Structures are given as structure tokens and as C-alpha cells.
Amino acid sequence: MPLFIQNRRIDQFNSTGELFDKYHHLKESARTFRSKPPANVDPKCLLYVQQREFAATTPADKWVSVIGSDDATTCHLVVLRHTGSGAVCLAHCDGSSTWSEVLLLMKSVASLSNANEEGRLEVHLVGGFNDESKTSHKLSLNILAAFHKQKEDIHLETCCITEMNDVVVDGTHRPIVYGIGVDVKKGDVFPASFSYKGPAEELRSARTFTGGQMADIYDSSQGYVKIGPCKWSPNLDIAIWLSQDDDTILKYLSTSPMAEPPYFVQHMKSTIQFILQHPSTDSLFPAGQPQLYHRTERGEWERVV
């Protein structure tokens, strides 16, 4: 089992509670991490990662200084970094295919690192809370188990997950940290919030809503955000959600209805409206090619294809 804490192999554990009881250092570092106020990240240096997406780059990147993601309730945000090359990857995992997703992260960091380069792999896990269905707890264990099974040694640096990311507000459990950023140059991971979640925010949300799998959204060699191509079947039945009240949408379209940010319902409605406006994705991806975006001199993402 290649997961290490403070250079010691992690012993077997059956729950996140047992993990934190065995390794008090993890508990203390989680408390320190969650106590930091979320930083407001400047959109002009940001690469935003949505649910079921990941992005990887290196300190040599001229276009991106911070990779970030938020709106994680039961979802987990995973940062994997090689300390030698500085190659870093951030993923927003929702439990759809955890084992294969961890492999994608490992391969993405390896592809940006020299196999003979000194350094080690470090992982930072943030997300989840004490939700009633134990969805967070299951995902925490699955992610940890997936990293355990890798051939390479991996050092667990931050583990602010499930019960260590939980707070009770007015009798309701909620996450403390909903979003994180990672400084591409330094490798620092920090709580964060984001005013901008593009480019192509609605298209990317629609891809996930209609069952898209974990997608790599960034070509660091050229500084391109690449979306798709993806397909979904015309399904006019989803229009019924637009006539439902907020409580119904929360109940059926969220894994954690009481813990969602206040804009969740509007986000769901705009995503559904986008799908209804584009029953076929052919017009979104001419000739079956992805949408490509590049950062302008003003720091904005601009579509180039």
C-alpha cells in the first residue's frame, strides 16, 4: 500500500474516523486548512474545473497561475502534484468512476514529469461532509483506496474530508470548505471561491448533467481549454424540471439538498435550458471537433475554434 503520511506507510483502516484517530497530524492539518478564509481568485489567472473534469499543467505555464474548483458538497476535490517537476493536476470527483479517474490523474502528472526526475508525488484531498446518506464517506474511502493501489509511492499531505470538513448550521450538516485553488508555481493548496466558472460554463455543465465521464479540459503545451466533443440524446422530458419548485429540484437533483449553495437551483435550470436549446450537439461541435479557448492579453478566455 503506497500511501504515506509523514514518510510512514499508512496502516489499514476501515473508516475515515479510524484514519483520523490513527494519524492525529492529519486531523490537525485539516483543522488548520479549513480555518483559512477562502481566497477570491482573479479570473485572469484562473483555470476553473467543473464537476467530473480535471486539468493538469506545470510551473512553465504562461497562461494559468491557479487551477481551482468549488461547489463541492459530497464531491471531493483532488490535487496530485510531483514535487520535482512541479506538474500538478486538480480534479472534481463525484464518485462516478473513482478508480479509473485516479488512474487518469496519475497518468496526467506522469506525462508532464520526467521519469528520472527527483521528487515525490503528493496528494491533497478536500471535500465531503457528514451527509445522511454517507455518500461523502464512501467516496472518501474509495479515493483513498484507489491511491493505495497505485504502484508509485504517494504522500498524503492534506486530508480535509468528510467529518473533518463538517459543520452543523441550524441543525443541518454542511461542508466547511466548498472550493479550493492550487498555485501552479508554488504548489500551495488553499480554500477558494470563484466568481467566474467558464469558459463555456453551461456547455460543460450540460455534459456532466447528461452523463459525461471525467474529462481532461486543458492542453498545457498550447494553453487551450478544450471542451468536447460530446453527445446527448434529445430528451424533452427534462423540461418538466423547469416548472418544479425549488424544493423539488433540490430533493431530486442533488445528493445533498440541505448543503447546496444558494444558486444551485438556478444553475440546474440554466443547464436544462441549455440542453433544451441544443437537442443535438452537432452545431456545438462543427465537424465533430472540440471547442477550443485561449487566454487573451486581457486575461479572458476567447474561443478560437
3D architecture notes:
The protein is an alpha/beta fold. It has a single domain, classed as 60s Ribosomal Protein L30, Chain: A (2-Layer Sandwich). Helices cover 25% and strands 26% of the residues. It contains 7 helices and 19 strands. It has an 8-stranded mixed sheet, sandwiched between helices. The protein has a 5-stranded mixed sheet with strand order 3-14-13-6-4, with no helix packed on it. A 4-stranded antiparallel sheet has the order 16-17-18-19, with no helix packed on it. A hairpin with a 5-residue loop joins strand 13 and strand 14. Helix 3 packs across helix 4 and helix 5 packs across helix 7. It is globular. The termini are far apart.
* Average of the residue pLDDT scores: 94
User: Termini separation (Å)?
Assistant: 44 Å
Separate helix tally: 7
The computed structural class is alpha/beta
What is the count of β-strands? 19
Widest β-sheet, arrangement of strands: 2-1-10-9-7-8-5-15
CATH class: Alpha Beta
Helix content: 25-40%
Query: What low-confidence regions span 5 or more consecutive residues with pLDDT below 50?
Result: none
Strand content: 25-35%
Sheet having the most strands? 8 strands, mixed
Please give the domain count: 1
Globular, elongated, flat, extended or rod-shaped: what is the shape? globular
Order of helices and strands: EEHHEEEEEEHEHEEEEEHEEEHHEE
CA radius of gyration is: 19 Å
Task: Give the CATH architecture.
Answer: 2-Layer Sandwich
CATH topology: 60s Ribosomal Protein L30, Chain: A
